[in-house]
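Hi P.,

Sorry for the delay on this. The queue was packed all week, but I finally got your sequence through. Input first:
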Amino acid sequence: MISLKNSLLAISPIKSAGELNSNKALKHITSQLDTCMSLCEKITETLNEDAPVNLQKGDVIAKGVSAELDELRNLSASGKGYLAMMEEREIARTGISSLKIAFNNVFGYYIEVRNTHKEKVPADWTRKQTLVSAERYITEELKEYEEKILGAQEKISTLELSLFQQLASFLLEFIKPVQKNSRQIAQT
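Then the structure:
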């Protein structure tokens, strides 16, 4: 798609040069060229300029195309920062300085509090697991975050594919003009 856009952008100078040329046949051929500017603009606004050839590698769709995609990318990229911010906020709110927010494959995300600080645990926390020297809890916010972060990468891939398919569908409208451009340029 990027190569197509770059090829289409080369049509404008060819068309201009042909219009200035004194050869009537060349003028006629280049006058029939279609710059397909709306397609070029759509590709430019939709795709990252250095998008990988394989859609599965991700980062194909440009920032700003989809608010949902941008949010998921931010969530995926700044996950640890968000958890650190949440941990600091909960430490300040509860006064439990040893509180930790962590993750494991069995229980997911949790807040761990040593038994010596159990009495400081807020009522809105739900016990998730009991350990010998600590308790693990979950909050509604942490549960929502877990759902978001664990599904973010899959959703990113699905969303990028969908947006790319929309672009490909838009491209279908330009098949005939692109083919005609190819024929016209081949004659010059």
